[in-house]
Amino acid sequence: MPEAGPGRPVLSVIIPAMNEAENLQSLLPALQQTLAGLGVPTEVIVADGGSTDATSAVAGEVGARVIRQVEPGYGGALRAGFAAARGDTFLTMDGDWSHEPDVIRALWAARGGADFVIASRYVPGGRAQMGWVRLLLSRILNVTYRRILDLPVRDLSSGFRLYRRRILEEIAPEATDFDVLQEILVKAVGGGFTVGEVPFRFRPRGAGRSHVRLLRFAAAYLRTLWRMWCLRNSVASADYDARAFDSRIPVQRYWQRHRTRIVHGFLEDRRSVLDIGCGSSRIISDLPEGVGVDVAFRKLRYLTRYKRRLIQGSAEALPVRDAAFRSVICSEVIEHLPADPGIFREMVRVLAPGGILILGTPDYSRWVWRVIERIYGWMLPGAYAKEHITRYDPAGLRRLLTAMGCEVLEARYVGFGILLGLVVGSFCNVCIHRLPKGQSVVTPRSRCPACGTAIRPLDNVPLLSFLWLRGRCRACGAAISWRYPLVEALTGGLFGAAFLAFGPTVRAFVAALLLAALVVVTFIDLEHQVIPDEVTLVGLPVGLVASLLTGWPPVAEALLAALGGAGGLYLVAVYGEVAFQREVLGGGDVKLAGMLGAFLGGRGLLLASFLACLAGGLVGGFLLATGRAGRGTLLPFGPFLAFGGAATLFFGDALWAWYWGLLR
After folding, report:
1. Residue 564's CB: how many other CB atoms inside 10 A?
2. Model confidence over 199-209: pLDDT tens digits?
3. Helix, strand, coil tally for the chain in percent (to 5)
4. How confident is the model at residue 210 (pLDDT cuts 50, 70, 90)?
5. Which of 283, 349, 291, 284 is nearest to 316 (CA)?
6. Quick one: pLDDT at residue 471?
7. Whose C-alpha in 75, 258, 300, 608 is 20 to 30 A from the C-alpha of 174?
């Protein structure tokens, strides 16, 4: 830190420049005039990259301090400027006169709302006057970085920025070229700092030529993109849990949201809650009166935007008085710590008598988790997998908690629905492959369709084996169809959604069975235009028995809907064949309607049929309009009935309520 004193500047302006004498002659006087209007002590530093013109002389004439950069490139110039600057706030800008200094006022005014402010061309009010090729490349660069790295910024490549000194001191940028701009931004966001943007107008440089070398520029940006992607998906990223809650990856999003839902569901008193190892998760951010504890300051810094009460401390020695909270949460933390009973004693110490301790940790007694963790560590080597140093199982954890005087009330699994769905999805693939051929779905063991080699158990792990083998048979190297991971992922997602919607209940299991049957029906009908009786004629009585066990729908309604659905669709098939002189619906569609009636009841079947017809009409109209189908083309109706059934299962009540609300 610079020494305090009356002559020390508050703002340091850093301008990388090489052979920019002509531009600096007009830029620096305008800059000095703008800085004078801020009313704070300032300094201007020109980092000269080895100019052969009068850059140094011109800068010195108007009172700028000229320094010679030692390291090469734009990144080297910025680091030289940061090291020489004496202010608490840094402002960087280019020396090519491509932006008016007036925007400094907007940057300075925005400093109270963010740690790091960018003058942006791509927010409302901003403009970029440049050739279409350069504009296109700039847009591609910014969109690519923003999407891949999940950054809340639209102009990542703007060098016109305002920083707090502590940001640069903490993140220590390394890049040597223009990619240092993205590195600083990603490390700042990953460090929990807030970032804001203000609009500005970018214009072509004043005089001279750009120092960008396109090939070197592109190579540097690709290298930095990879490094920053690893950083964003590592333990070093402060907002990792927050981003996972809204992840574009369905499984990751489901995991975080269901974990949060389970934890919040256990809370009896939401006003007296301590979240140990809170990270950046929504568990603490959705508890306005909760207190978060974490050893990583960057994660607490990120959480300050939610105005929560936060404490930096370790689970091994909680900086909290005895019996202070009615509820204590410690979710996905204890596996990161040594196996020390003292950690659990600390949790019990701060828990009020009769309070609730909510623990979350992976179950290492299940082989599925061990495989998932191994693949996870292989795909994301910097992420959390290698941080798990203590492996708990339910029996051992129960004994430990009982020894602490705790009573274990309930245990729930976050990923049970998804994991079960992945396993069932693997069996669905067997059904999809064998049922149209009239083969048994039980024997023989699964084999490679290309070489006939029996598939080893470790090569048959749902979804993960496909990734591990990179989509090829271990024995012959033949490509494995993408249908296999697609069916497994789809079934896993649907099972997870079922358990999320209905909880760990019999109804959730019944819904999952129906969804698995619909997945099998969809893929077989799409490929072979047939719906096997082995699915529908087995599914129909299963649906009736399920209605008898759960009372949903009432068994009498389920029976009438099964008969009415099959009979109604049979009449449509007969009438259609007479009217159009060809088959319009197959017998498999009729039986599928009966099965849906048994599972969904009369009202559910009616809505499912309507949604199926609507979806079929939209798809058929699109295919006709694009010339991909003619008037005589037959579309399999099974997939549309399956879609209608699944949509009714999850959204039927809401759709009916919306419909009746329109009529009132």
Report:
1. 17
2. 999 887 767 66
3. 55, 10, 35
4. low
5. 349
6. 86
7. 300
Widest distance between CA atoms in the chain: 97
pLDDT at residue 167 above 80?
yes
Is the pLDDT reported for residue 238 higher than 50?
A: yes
d(CA 223, CA 179): 9
- Residues in contact with 452: Cβ distance below 8 Å, sequence separation at least 6, in sequence order: none
Average pLDDT over residues 207-225: 70
Determine the residue type at 643. Answer: F
How far apart are the C-alpha atoms of 561 and 582, rounded to whole Å?
27
Cβ proximity of 552 and 509 under 8 Å: no
- The mean-pLDDT minimum among 177-181, 504-508, 599-603, 647-651 falls in 504-508
Is the Cα torsion angle 320, 322, 326, 330 positive or negative in sign?
Answer: positive
Q: Are strands 161-164 and 89-92 parallel, antiparallel or unpaired?
A: antiparallel
Please give the pLDDT value at position 411. 81
- Report the C-alpha gap between 91 and 159 in whole angstroms: 9
Token readout for 321 is: 């008085």
Residues paired with residue 524 on neighbouring β-strands, in sequence order? none
Q: Is it the case that residue 378 has pLDDT exceeding 70? A: no
Query: With bands split at pLDDT 50, 70 and 90, how would you rate the model's confidence at 122?
Result: very high
Burial of 654 (0-12, 13-18, 19+ CB in 10 A): exposed
207 phi/psi in degrees, rounded to 5 = -130, 165
DSSP H helices, 352-482, are: 367-379, 394-403, 416-434, 464-468
Q: Which residues contact 47 (CB under 8 A, 6 or more apart)?
A: 14, 15, 16, 17, 67, 68, 69, 77, 78, 80, 81, 84
**Helix (H) or strand (E) run with residue 148 in it:** helix 132-149
Long-range contacts of 302-307 (CB under 8 A, 24+ apart): 302/192, 302/238, 302/239, 302/242, 303/192, 303/278, 304/192, 305/194
What's the pLDDT at 1? Answer: 40
pLDDT band for 459, please (50, 70, 90 cuts).
confident
Q: Are 445 and 457 in contact (CB under 8 A)?
A: no
* 571-577 contacts, C-beta under 8 A, 24 or more apart: none
Strands lying side by side in the sheet with 273-276: 309-312, 291-294, 273-276, 325-331, 351-360
CA dist 599 and 590 (Å) reads 15
Rounded CA separation 366/418 (Å)? 14
Q: What is the pLDDT of residue 517?
A: 95
List strand residue ranges (DSSP E) for 110-166, in order.
Answer: 116-120, 127-128, 161-164
DSSP code per residue over 528-571:
HS---HHHHHHHHHHHHHHHHHH-SS-HHHHHHHHHHHHHHHHH
pLDDT the model gives residue 292:
94
Minimum mean pLDDT range among 222-226, 386-390, 499-503, 547-551 = 499-503
| Integer CA distances (angstroms), 292 to 60, 241, 331, 372, in order | 51, 14, 12, 29
**Residue at 606: amino acid letter:** L
Provide the 8-state DSSP code for 454: B
pLDDT, residue 646, reads 94
Helices 394-403 and 341-349 pack at an angle, to 10 degrees, of 50
Tokens encoding 564:
């009415």
Distance of CA 469 to the CA centre of its chain: 25
CB neighbours of 231 closer than 8 A, spacing ≥ 6? 186, 187, 190, 237, 382
